[in-house]
Amino acid sequence: MKPSLIVHGGAWNIPDVAVEDCRNGCRRALEAGWAILSEGGAALDAVEAAIVVLEDDPTFDAGIGSHLNRDGKIELDAIVMDGATLKAGAVAAVERIRNPIRLARSVLESSEHMMLVGEGAEQFAREQGFTLCDPEELVLDRERMAWRRCREDQHAAEFHVDHAMGTVGAVAMDSRGNLFAGTSTGGTCCKHAGRVGDSPLIGCGCYADAEAGGVSCTGLGEAIMRIVMAKTAVEILRAGKSPQAAAEACTNLLLKRGHGTGGLILLDKNGAPGFAFNTARMAFGYAALDGAFVVAP
Questions:
Q1: 108 in the Ramachandran plot: left (φ > 0), alpha (ψ -120 to 50) or beta?
Q2: pTM of this prediction?
Q3: Cis peptide bond prior to 135, omega within 30° of 0
């Protein structure tokens, strides 16, 4: 079976000045994941590698450079899901994990649970041999300045023009047909401490079922949660719709019933890609049938 890979760096009103950075980030993520898949490697390794690249890229709202919450702190969420077993590993509201997707994978592989949050997640990380970072290592001056402006004035999206909504994700299928999906985010700017959005929630920000397909979502978390968008997309695929039709149906539903904006990427059970968004732009990329990378915006 030919492997497949699709990644995203968020759906939002990406300004012209940020387009090239978004493209370059998605291209680097594709390169990292495809280097594994093209050599016969595992889909889980490819999803992790691609998302780590995006978490380490300050262009996006995940890992380093994430938005600060109302208290001026970073709280990170991530999930990875196995389409064969329907088991997921997720973490939420962690402050001292540089790459939360790696901890989510550890939960998937080494925990009886499917989600760990806050201090409990970080305790598990220590038990698994992770080195916890100083939370300030994840904070950029850009975000500290935006947070201060929001504190001094009414919160406004223009204070975060560099990456107003840049959740990241990846979906991969390897040469053995294994399907995995993952999502990682820093959440919304100036969110209440402890707020968890759609990204780490199974069926909302991420879902994978080898019998139908795998999905990673991005956008207004509360709206995505209302329509359980990732699971909804998988069920549309299960009903026989094309990947593109499934993706477009979900963004239409997100606007109509969820009353929100965002987008999603997906692979069907055969590895065919689909993507859609109801925002001005979405940062995403996928490996075409000939192995070439298609990157947008």
A1: alpha
A2: 0.96
A3: no
